[in-house]
Amino acid sequence: MAALCLYVHGMNVPGARSHGQLSISASSAPRDLLTDRPSRAGAWTAKVITLFPETFPGVLAASLTGKALTEGLWNLETVDLRQFGAGKHRSVDDTPSGGGAGMVLRADVMGNAIRHACRETASPLAYLSPRGRRLDQRMVQRFSEGPGLVLISGRFEGLDQRVIDRFCIEEVSLGDFVMTGGEIAAQALIDAAVRLLPGVVGNAASIEGESFSNGLLEHPQYTRPASWEGCDIPDVLTSGDHQAVAKWRQQEAERLTRERRPDLWQAYSDKDP
Questions:
Q1: Cα–Cα dist 200/198, whole Å
Q2: What is the pLDDT along the chain (273 residues), one digit of tens a residue?
Q3: Residues 6+ apart with CB under 8 A from 219
Q4: Is 130 helix (H, G, I), strand (E, B) or coil?
Q5: Which residues contact 26 (CB under 8 A, 6 or more apart)?
Q6: CA-based max dimension of the chain
Q7: Helix/strand/coil (H, E, C) string of 238-266?
Q8: Can you tell me the distance from the alpha carbon of 105 to that of 98, in angstroms, rounded to the nearest whole number?
């Protein structure tokens, strides 16, 4: 039978924390990340289901993403998975069926957390998993164009497959390596998506010329001083000839892509002229 994909509304369960309007002023005291803060209606929203809500916003509170969060260009909420745990000790995991090492996140616990996170939203669900499709710029672009994301930070040996099938969860991986949990991966994905939102990066042209935006790696970058420890900036970049500069940058982007990412170069070369 085909998997039933749905969003269920109406559960009112404690466990969500909003980080909208986050202040990023310097402080010597630890920030209270669990204080409810107002969210901007209609803004792109990331909801993260995690056993460690205190790890958010983390690096997302810094630089452009932090400024945009404060300005209400996007919202961040955490859903504490432990709040949905079973029994006296709020257990969230159990031994794998069929035996084996480690523990697996329980279907009932995660299902309730997902229903809570997905109330009143149609945002897609993504599970940070080493067996997922590798994250790329095209995927990030797709995520940034929607209303937001509900992210599941994996732990232990993974998540009960029935939950993945039931909610049609997209599995996403940062690469061919394994981490202790999905929180860092979730922050990386959110950062990549948020910087594509209108108004987050002041100079839109800087996004257009970045690695992967046109199928190529980015060309080398230089700045002052013109000469440093015997190494000079390429003459073409100080020539004032904008056409020559553009040609040089294109050639360098192609060279780097051929040398470092043959897979990208092949895909770029196969594109229709």
A1: 6
A2: 333 334 443 344 445 566 654 433 333 333 443 344 456 889 999 999 999 999 999 999 999 999 999 999 999 999 999 999 999 999 999 999 999 999 999 999 999 999 999 998 899 999 999 999 999 999 999 999 999 999 999 999 999 999 999 999 999 999 999 999 999 999 999 999 999 999 999 776 566 656 676 889 999 999 999 999 999 999 999 999 999 999 999 999 999 999 999 999 999 999 855
A3: 248, 249, 250, 252, 253, 256
A4: strand
A5: none
A6: 72
A7: HCCCHHHHHHHHHHHHHHHHHHHCHHHHH
A8: 15
For the chain, helix (H) and strand (E) counts, in that order, are 8, 10
Q: How far is CA 182 from CA 25, 52, 135, 172, 224, in A?
A: 27, 10, 13, 10, 39
84, two tokens? 């949905």
Instruction: Give the orientation angle of helix 183-194 with respect to helix 63-70, to 10 degrees.
Output: 70
User: 209 Cβ partners below 8 Å, 6+ apart?
Assistant: 218, 249
The first and second tokens of residue 214, run together, are: 């046109």
CA geometry: angle at 54 spanning 49 and 8, to 5°? 20
Residue 119, C-beta contacts closer than 8 angstroms, at least 6 positions apart: 7, 8, 9, 10, 11
- According to DSSP, the β-strands at 44-50 and 74-80 are parallel
Residue 182 corresponds to which amino acid? Answer: G
* Domain 16-194 CATH assignment equals 3.40.1280.10: yes
Element at 63 (helix H, strand E): helix 63-70
CATH of domain 215-270: 1.10.1270.20
Which conformational region is residue 57 in: left (phi greater than 0), alpha (psi within -120 to 50 degrees), or beta?
Answer: alpha
List the chain domain ranges: 16-194, 215-270
